[in-house]
Amino acid sequence: MGKLFEKFPDPLARLIVVFLALVAAGAFVFFVLIPKPVKDLKVQWDNAIRQESARPVKYAGFHACAECHDKLYETKKKGYHRDLSCETCHGAAKAHTEDPDTVKPVIPAERAFCPQCHAYNPSRPRGFPQINPVAHNPLKPCASCHNPHDPKPPTTPKECAACHGEIARTKAVSHHVQLECTTCHVTPQRHKVSPRAVKPTKPQDREFCGKCHGKDASAKLSANAPKIDLAEHGEKYVCWQCHYPHSPEVEQ
Amino acid sequence: MNPELLHTLKELLPQIQGYIYPNEIEIHWGLLIVVYPYITGIVAGAFILASLVKVFNVKEVQPLYRLSLLTALAYLLVAPVALVAHLGHPERFYEILLTPNTSSAMAMFGFVYAWYLMAVLLLEIWFVHRTDLIEWAEHETGAMRFIHRALALFSRDTGERAVAFDHKALKVITIVGIPSAFLLHGYVGFIFGSIKANPWWSSVLIPIVFLFSAIVSGVALVILLYMVITPLTGGKINMRCVDKAIDFLFYAVIVDFSLELVDFIHRVYQSEEEILILSEMVMSKLFASLLIIQVLLGMLLPLALISVTKIFKKRFHLSEDLRKMVYFISVILIQFGIFATRWNVVIGGQMFSKSFRGLTTYKVEFGGIEGLLFAILLLALPIVILAVLMKILPPWKEMREEGAAETVEVAGS
Predict the structure, then answer these.
(1) Mean pLDDT computed over A89-105
(2) Run of H or E including B18
(3) Domain coordinates of chain B in residue numbers?
(4) Same domain for A251 and A168
(5) Chain-chain contact of A11 with B16 (C-beta, under 8 angstroms)
(6) Average pLDDT of chain B?
């Protein structure tokens, strides 16, 4: 080893050599061996995008079906399933749109299919239509009573609960159990036939709840209602920003 | 719909309690991410044990010195494997190295790891073994001779100046090493602790709790390895050494336990809005792994067992075998306890909904890269590496020593 190194103790000198060799090797690999594009983030992103967009498209998209199945498309648009894409149920169908006669999409006609979305499950959003697949008209395929492209109860239901089961169930065990739905929602009969076209009213202001809960309330049923001072209580906000109207709770 | 997704959903949905958001049903940081902090914890813990000898001059545990360094190295080599395997595309891992992201907290692991491996652990091991390597090579032939000479970097200098430098360097490295080991595992805690949106993780105490549980697991593992390897290779367990190490372990468990207790009391006292769902989770989904395994079997029982040997000192000092058995059971329990700790942190943090209204479930797969089998493989791999390391850098002489002050000079050089 050179004169320079004699100044250092032997172990240190050797380590320095190894260290310098490692640094040199690393620098060589990084700066010389690896081509520039590999190290350039922008180029990498670009490549990644190209790579992803080069993958074959399997889904045709919602509106592609309208071209040939225009009637179904229009029907579905007005029904409850308007937010579901055709391919949610029929599977990827790009190939079908290109060659409809040889490639047929799957038809999920078996009973087990619909409960994937409709079986009762507490993690589903409030008000989502749910049934118990074991108890709900067993053995018959769902499509024998509900048109999958325009699902609705086969007969016009009498109860709001037929479609708002979750809300009705919730209200049934709440403090508002005595209140009819129509106390708070003026519901035209047509709502039960075409619910999306004709909508019931919803309470709009604080005074509405005040009819029963205000200091000097006089409405029917208001006798039992706990009273609050409308001017003070929960000022600025409408009541249902704090109390769920279908199951009003008072957290202490 | 995607049939694979449907299949998992069908299994998971019935297990869900209450309301959770759709993207919370499946847990994404699975078993591998449990294994990872467990392994880095052992690295940090084993290293701290080694520094006891070098920095704090605890002579009794000298027989564990090299063993704990080699253990730290063996586990350190496996730690990134868990992370890389967890990537969706492990084969693209090298790309991370080519375009380092200096502002990502997760990428910091690469830097901390490299620093710890290269600047601390390898250097320390090299300095410890340098003169031995030279000596071994002199009495050997063939491949082993070459390996040892190469590892010594072909150094042959056992002169006074060189040896004195070894000692000085070791001291410095160990002192730098302690904060580095803290950094390595504190970092893992930091990653969890800094996730603001998750109340189970987001706590400034987490890095510190991680650190102490790391010390506990590392020390316990080295003791366990020592107690298993020594008799298997025909040596005799040095009880003075084990007693001292267990002493140290005992205090570490107490500190770890108190820290976790403080964290717990703090949460309960603060009683923020998440407390209801968290307590429900602890009482249902984490009941076995947290209350039973982590706290009862992993902490309180070992503490009680070791306390018994301390309280009934006379009785236990008469029978070494009895003491050995108690220690042996304790360190094994502690390993399970710490593994459960990692599980509870990692899995627990993903089991409750951010709506604070529901819980999901984690189902461990058996096969596959995220599965049980692979995790077991990962946990076994360091042992294999350790066996190889012990072939190349045999710590036997030191492990067999009667472990008294007068022999330390020989071993340290």
Answers:
(1) 92
(2) strand B17-18
(3) 28-346+364-400
(4) yes
(5) no
(6) 88
